[in-house]
């Protein structure tokens, strides 16, 4: 939803915004449903769920207002959707039980906040950009500048996510009493089943694919770019799954 700020319904039309907001509302509903059936054992309180529920409701309202082509009202609703959604991510991170995280001298929750926000950014941007690539089949004369803009957002999100990983390692080196060599040995060998796929799908593959996507966009080859974006979606989804596995096995946000 946040990525919708970078494109305009007045230029593209409201159909893409309706599709994107409906998809977002469904995904948020799935998350809320799972939380209702399987309450999180690592979260204290239900404020994040309440905020996400509000964000989902506002997204549905946004969808209906966008259908009526009331773009100014929809813009205000989009701000409200993103504010409550981001607040839900922040509170979900700060309500993560302290004893379930590696002790980093007070940096545990801030690192989790930054990591989760960056994860949401990279997942949201890659999925939205991939779907937008299909819109060139719906509107053949659509300018390539819109896809180029979303591709830049995606590249920025990938760099931000990689930056949060580097920041986590830096804080671990400075604040953790256990030698960094022992931590890396544990990650690379004991947790290697999760760590190496995390590095491969979350760092190496996205860097390579983002360069390829950008080059195809510059060539105005939207179908090739969309195919590469499919691969990026799969890689980043796997990467974030492994990231969450590492959070529970090594107790650190990577």
Quickly list its features.
254 residues; mainly alpha
- Gross morphology is globular
Q: What's the total count of β strands?
A: 0
Overall mean pLDDT:
93
Name the beta content range: under 5%
- Report the end-to-end length measured between terminal Cα atoms: 24 Å
Low-confidence stretches: none
- Structural class assignment: mainly alpha
Give an overview in words.
The radius of gyration is 19 Å and the shape is globular. Helix content is 79%, strand content 0%. The longest helix has 32 residues. The chain is built from nine helices and no strands. It folds into two domains: 95 residues; 155 residues, no CATH class.
Layout: helices, strands, pairs:
Blueprint lengths: L8 H4 L2 H23 L9 H21 L3 H24 L13 H31 L5 H32 L4 H11 L1 H27 L3 H28 L5
Helix pairs in contact: 2-3, 3-4, 4-5, 5-6, 5-9, 6-8, 7-8, 8-9
Give a brief rundown of this model.
With 254 residues, this protein is an all-alpha fold. It has helices at 9-12, 15-37, 47-67, 71-94, 108-138, 144-175, 180-190, 192-218, 222-249. The protein folds into 2 domains: 1-95; 100-254, no CATH class.
């Amino acid at each position: 939803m946040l990525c919708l700020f970078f494109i305009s319904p007045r230029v593209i039309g409201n159909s893409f915004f309706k599709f994107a907001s409906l998809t977002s509302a469904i995904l948020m509903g799935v998350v809320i449903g799972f939380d209702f059936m399987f309450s999180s054992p690592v979260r204290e309180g239900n404020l994040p769920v309440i905020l996400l529920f509000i964000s989902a409701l506002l997204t549905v309202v946004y969808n209906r207002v966008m259908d009526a082509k009331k773009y100014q009202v929809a813009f205000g609703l989009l701000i409200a959707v993103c504010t409550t959604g981001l607040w839900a991510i922040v509170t979900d991170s700060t309500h993560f039980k302290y004893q379930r995280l590696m002790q980093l001298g007070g940096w545990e929750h801030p690192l989790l906040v930054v990591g989760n926000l960056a994860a949401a950014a990279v997942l949201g941007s890659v999925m939205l950009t991939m779907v937008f690539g299909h819109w060139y089949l719906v509107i053949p004369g659509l300018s390539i500048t819109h896809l180029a803009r979303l591709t830049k957002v995606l590249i920025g999100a990938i760099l931000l996510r990689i930056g949060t990983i580097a920041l986590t390692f830096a804080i671990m080196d400075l604040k953790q009493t256990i030698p960094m060599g022992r931590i890396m040995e544990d990650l690379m060998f004991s947790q290697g089943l999760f760590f190496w796929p995390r590095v491969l799908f979350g760092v190496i593959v996205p860097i390579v694919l983002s360069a390829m996507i950008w080059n195809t966009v510059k060539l105005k080859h939207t179908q090739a770019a969309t195919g590469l974006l499919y691969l990026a979606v799969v890689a980043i989804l796997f990467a974030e799954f492994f990231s969450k596995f590492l959070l529970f096995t090594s107790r650190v946000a990577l």
